[in-house]
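Hi there. Long-time user, first ticket. I'm pasting a complex I've been working with (about 570 residues overall). I'd like to know whether the download I got is complete or cut off, because the file seemed smaller than I expected. Thanks.
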Amino acid sequence: MNVGTIARVAGAVFKESVRDRVLYNLVGFALLLMGASYLIGQLTAGQDVKIIKDLGLAAMSVFGLFIAIFIGIGLVSKEVERRSVYSLLAKPVRRSELVVGKYVGLVLTVAVNLAVMAAVYYLVLGYMSWFETDAFKRSWEAPATDVRLLVAIYLVFMQLALVIAVALFFSTFSSPMLSASFTFGLFIAGHFNADLKNFGQVVGDSPIRYVTTALYYVMPNMAAFDVKSAVVHAQPVTAGYVALVTGYGLLYIAALVAAGVVIFSRRDFK
Amino acid sequence: MSRSGPALALAAVCFLAAVCLQVMRDRRYPSRPTTAEALYLTSGDTARRLALSYKALLADVYWIRAVQYFGSTRLSEQANRSFDLLYPLLDITTSLDPAFNIAYRFGAIFLSEGYPNGPGRPDQAVALLDKGFRHNPHRWQYLYDKAFVYHWWYRDPERASYWFAEAAKVPDSPEWMPGLAAFMLSQGGDRARSRVLWEQIARTAEHQYMRTNAEFRLRQLDAMDLIDRLNPLLERYEQQTGQRATGWAPLIRRGWLRREPVDPSGSPLVIDASGRAGVARGSELHPLPTETTPAAPPTR
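Hi, the file is complete. Here it is re-exported in full:
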């Protein structure tokens, strides 16, 4: 695979998403946070900074999820539907480079989105902190502009990178509608992995146990990336945990992209 | 006008007309006020599962609902106001975010507040604080608050002392905590002990709401002290004249008082039908804690 070709495909995906006004969501995010920071102070018995932290992290995750799913599902399948895949494959671009480039391009889009959202997030938190007295700040579990929030943002990014890989995988062989359903379904099911494991333990030594245990390991564990609450409460999230989850995410992504490459490479477009 | 001008104008006119119709409909068919608040999810565990990665945000939503519910019910003019949903709301909040410190501490204050200013459920306050300590065994504050509930709402110094002593066993609890446990069992009036405790909270509590609450309780204690000084005057008047005073004017004429007495919130004190002084119903200090019956304590 040629890295230069992958970078060019990725750049094209990024430019296309900018042209499609995907980055407009940043305006929505900024307005949401600024509006909420003004309104929430009246409603929450002094918990406004905690709530803005929660709201900002959740909004980054939700906005990113929508971009990941609704753009991710069309990455390959739209090229096939529009028949633009023929002109693409007529160029000196391998199918594997096309799939990997598409993936990298959307990850780049999401990363830029998250980076800008994180900057707005810190600005709003800094603004809220600026007007509070030192005595009030002492009642906070963590400073408003706590750098540890970046750990949660980083793991939101890793989770979204995994969701993009899932969407891309389905996009290589399915229609956008079905890909969206599958991806969203896996995102939800990925939060219930622990239940599958527990279920297997409850049923004892039956074949169901092996099935549920297998499913537990096969399905992407989305819950593992969620440290938002811990970070907001200034609870420790160790570097070891972050490294393990990052490794898990990268390996799972690699497996999905590789599988997507294989499926796309075998497709007959005649 | 550009080509899109007429379409934009039509859109604006239609939108304004829709708003006008909405206003007309609201006037002709006013929506009935909701008589009962609904809690669609009653199980914290179910809420946890449905929240996916957004548990903390959903906990915030439930916390805001709990604060709004408590505040609006407290301010409601309804005769039979009910705080029935307060505990379930706080329970769901803390199930979604078990580290939500303020939901336990403020929630316990809300729950134990005597009726009609609160549900008057110190038992639920204790249950909430127990849940908080189960999830956060490093937080001595929950045991400290629990001791307070036993002291203030149950008038049970022995249990209060027990829980202050338990709070003292938690690592990093303040060094004055064992002293409080002993102080609860010391000689001296209940009110004197309360004053010391509330003064300490007003001085040291990390949250403004808790300091404000302590200052409010101290004003209530001041009002009770003032009433205790006025009641002997009222009794003396009754002994001398053979009739109960119905106002302060006769006592002022005799030179026993310089002016009409007011409670620490600035509201004039009243004389009830039995001839005893008390705070007015309209006073922000009403009802005073001794005017509410202590609840039956649950088992330890």
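A couple of notes from our side: Chain B touches chain A at residues 49, 52-57, 59-60, 63-64, 67-68, 97, 99, 101-102, 106, 206-209 (CB under 8 Å). Residues 44-216 of chain B form a domain with the Serine Threonine Protein Phosphatase 5, Tetratricopeptide repeat fold (CATH 1.25.40).
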